[in-house]
Task: structure prediction
Amino acid sequence: MNLNQVTIPSLNVEKATAFYKTLGLILIVDALPRYVRFECPNGDSTLSIHKVDTLQNGDGISLYFEVENIEETVKTLKQKGITFTTNILEQTWLWNEVHLYDLDNNKIIIFHAGENRKNPPWRIN
Result:
């Protein structure tokens, strides 16, 4: 089994499309104003956004995007106007990550874990 597609809700798919293009995702399906699909520049995963009239209350979706060089990625995105809610954090689970929110309050974590993402020292066999 391979998780290859995630769909998130948005009140304004046009604005969400611009935001995710700024993050570097590649638009592959354009059914604006109700739906779009992106592919990530690395790997085979895709992300879709669909129009909703209301968003759910409370904690929403968290999206994790792994990058090879987190410092350079953050620098580049800041130059494009992206605002982060944290500085780069060195987590106890051996990942470096930075947090931000999209326009619909979905949490985004940009991180680098390398080998530790799937093979941390405490992995069970």
Summary: The chain has a mean pLDDT of 94.
